[in-house]
Each structure stands twice: as structure tokens, then as C-alpha cells.
Design a protein that fits this description.
The chain is mostly helical and 203 residues long. 75% of the residues lie in helices and 4% in strands.
Length: 203
């Protein structure tokens, strides 16, 4: 089933506010330097979200990618890049739909980026090993775990949206089992990919 217009409109309002704040902060971060990093991150997110993961019983999910992006460039720039990606998906690739733009930005950008970055920031002070190499390894592993939690948080947000604003009379347990089960697989993949990427970047 789908999500009704009131819920989509509410998510759109959150997305506009979050996008505006992110654009301001991202602009301040890159104003004094010319960089291709935003384009690289946007391309990565676009490709990541095109990779559909089949999980059986007719259910599939796609990678989110916002967790790794948030750890590399911060949540503000990540959310801005996700906004560009979901608009390309809706307007060029006919994926997601215009009325779902707000929902997609909230689920694929705002929630996973903020959760991942916030959790990693909270953990970082204790990620100290006896050597610099050990510290970097701990940070990479913790970053992967945070990205996994961010992906699960995105699944939780999507579940809440379907339960509150869904147009079909489907029980909350059924919705949670379907979305949550699919995103457990996604979370594991996000953790592995993020850990490997951070392990390479932090060398």
C-alpha cells in the first residue's frame, strides 16, 4: 500500500526545513574552497540506492548510503546530496514519485545521516586504542556499526510513516516485520561497506 497525502505533506514540511538548514550549513562549509566532493558523494548515493537487495518472499530493499556519507563529509552535506539524488530519481528516473520526495528525503537522508553522525560523535571519545592504527581500526568498526544503526533508524521512520499515514489496513506488526526484516540485511551490508571504506580512508 501507499502513504496518504497528509503524511506525505507532513514529511515534505520536515524535508523542506531539514534541507534548508542543511543547505545553509553545507554552503558555509564549502564556501571557501572549490571541491568536487559533493558531486562524488551524490554520485555514490545515487548508485547505492539503485542497488536493490532481494530478501525473499517478494520483498526487497535498497542500500541507503547516507551513513558512510555522513561520516565522510558530515550530515549537512549528506542531506543536501540526498535531496539532489531523490529529485533525480523522481524527475528523471521515475523512481519514487513527486509526492514521495519529502518521505524519501526524511528516510534516506535526514534520519540516517543524523543518527549515524550523532551516534559516532558520542562514541568517538572512547574510541582510543594503544596505537594510532588500533584507534583507526576501532573508528572504522564503530563507524560501520553506526551506519547500520542509521539504516535501521531509517527503516523505523518508514515503518512509522506506514503505520500512521498508510492507506491500507495493514497491522503495525506486519508492516514492521516486512520493512524491518528487509532492512536488517541492508544494515549488515551498510556496516560492512562503511567499515571497509573508513578503514581505507583512515589509513
Amino acid at each position: 500500500g501507499g502513504i496518504g497525502l497528509p503524511a506525505s505533506a507532513a514529511a515534505g514540511a520536515v524535508a523542506v526545513a531539514g534541507g534548508a538548514v542543511s543547505a545553509r550549513r553545507a554552503g558555509a562549509a564549502v564556501r571557501d574552497r572549490v571541491t568536487s566532493l559533493p558531486a562524488v558523494i551524490a554520485a555514490y548515493l545515487l548508485v547505492a540506492q539503485l542497488l536493490v537487495v532481494p530478501v525473499g518472499l517478494g520483498t526487497s530493499a535498497h542500500l541507503v548510503g547516507a551513513g558512510l556519507a555522513a561520516l565522510l563529509v558530515g550530515p549537512a552535506l549528506t542531506i543536501l546530496c540526498v535531496a539532489v539524488v531523490v529529485m533525480i530519481q523522481a524527475l528523471v528516473l521515475a523512481d519514487g514519485g513527486v509526492t514521495a520526495l519529502g518521505l524519501n528525503l526524511v528516510n534516506d537522508g535526514i534520519v540516517p545521516a543524523l543518527v549515524t553522525a550523532g551516534l559516532f560523535a558520542a562514541l568517538r571519545p572512547v574510541l582510543v586504542g594503544p596505537t594510532r592504527r588500533t584507534t583507526r581500526r576501532l573508528q572504522a568498526i564503530a563507524g560501520g556499526a553506526c551506519a547500520a544503526v542509521g539504516a535501521l533508524a531509517a527503516a523505523g521512520a518508514a515503518t512509522l510513516e506506514f503505520v500512521v499515514g498508510g492507506t491500507d489496513a495493514v497491522s503495525a506488526g506486519t508492516v514492521a516485520a516486512s520493512i524491518g526484516g528487509a532492512h536488517v540485511v541492508v544494515a549488515v551490508l551498510e556496516a560492512v561497506l562503511t567499515t571497509l571504506a573508513l578503514g581505507t580512508v583512515l589509513r
